[in-house]
Amino acid sequence: EDAGDKALAEVQLDKDGIQKLIENGDEFQSRIMTVIRELSVSDRFVDEEGSSSYTYPKGYKVKGIAEQVATLRQLFPELKDATFDESIASRPLPLNAEGYFSIPRWEKIAPTYGEAVNKVLATIKSKRKFYNYREGQTGSEYLRQSYESAEAFRKLGDEQKGHNILIVLCQFGLHHRGRSVRRAREVMNKCRVEFGLGAFAVECMLLTHPKREATPEQLHVDCAGDEFAPYTDGDFSYAPFLHFNYGEVRFNARWFGDALERCGSASAFLIDP
């Protein structure tokens, strides 16, 4: 309460400003809750994060939903008649979200999650130079969605029932730059409204936003919503990531405790946790 009084005193809102704050009370409350959750995050793996000045490449910006959906329908025949909830993108953005992205249900692309990941990777390869360090390693013994990510997409799917292209609030890695995937997951789990995006979602976002990966000297994308076991021994302690080098997009996976200043975990947000 004291902090709120002090903040209001320093901002020095006039009558119109106070009225606007009152009218947007729900959004105000949501932002306060998000900050409180972030401030209460535990110190687990805190040594796996550092400062980073890397950012998105010039020319990248979040496209409109209609344009994103048109791209997906063109690239995937399975989505030719896919619908989406147009009303969702009109909602205000919560703190740390960068925009609304169109992400298909992976089940509409292939029978298994790994096959869907492969299909989208193949589509990226058909559009630009691409290299896959994990060729042949997308079966369930290697790659799986995290429980948190799978549950969040199940909830989103239930909320957008009847639509095969989901409209999702996302950020493309900037919010978690310099953090290991393991540390980023810790921050997300404590916030409860945020969850990591896996390879399938990130690849689809990259298809609709090719300028997101365009140069080596930029922030690259960790896929914190997936778990990867490089030796098929049940130890899913790696996570996929996408980056750009030598003129091509590259797909790989590394230990989830590595904190690189050039990488940040992509994530999404539930509107009603």
List the main descriptive attributes of the protein structure presented here.
5-stranded mixed β-sheet, single chain, alpha+beta, 34% helix, 4-stranded antiparallel β-sheet, 273 residues
What does this protein structure show overall?
- With 273 residues, this protein is α+β, with helices and mostly antiparallel strands.
- The chain has 8 helices and 11 strands.
- A 5-stranded mixed beta sheet has the order 2-9-8-6-10, covered by helices on one side.
- The two termini are 25 Å apart.
Topology diagram in text:
Elements lengths: L1 H10 L3 H9 L1 H15 L25 H11 L23 E6 L8 H15 L2 E3 L10 E3 L1 H13 L5 E7 L9 H11 L2 E3 L2 H10 L11 E3 L3 E3 L9 E8 L2 E8 L7 E3 L1 E3 L4
Parallel strand pairs: 2-9, 6-10
Antiparallel strand pairs: 1-4, 3-7, 4-11, 5-11, 6-8, 8-9
Helix pairs in contact: 5-8
Q: Based on the structure, what is the oligomeric state of the protein chains?
A: single chain
**Proportion of beta-strand residues:** 15-25%
* Mean pLDDT over the residues: 91
Q: What's the SSE pattern?
A: HHHHEHEEHEHEHEEEEEE
Number of helices: 8
Short structural description:
With 273 residues, this protein is α+β, with helices and mostly antiparallel strands. The chain has eight helices and eleven strands. The protein has helices at residues 2-11, 15-23, 25-39, 65-75, 113-127, 147-159, 181-191, 199-208; strands at residues 99-104, 130-132, 143-145, 165-171, 194-196, 220-222, 226-228, 238-245, 248-255, 263-265, 267-269.
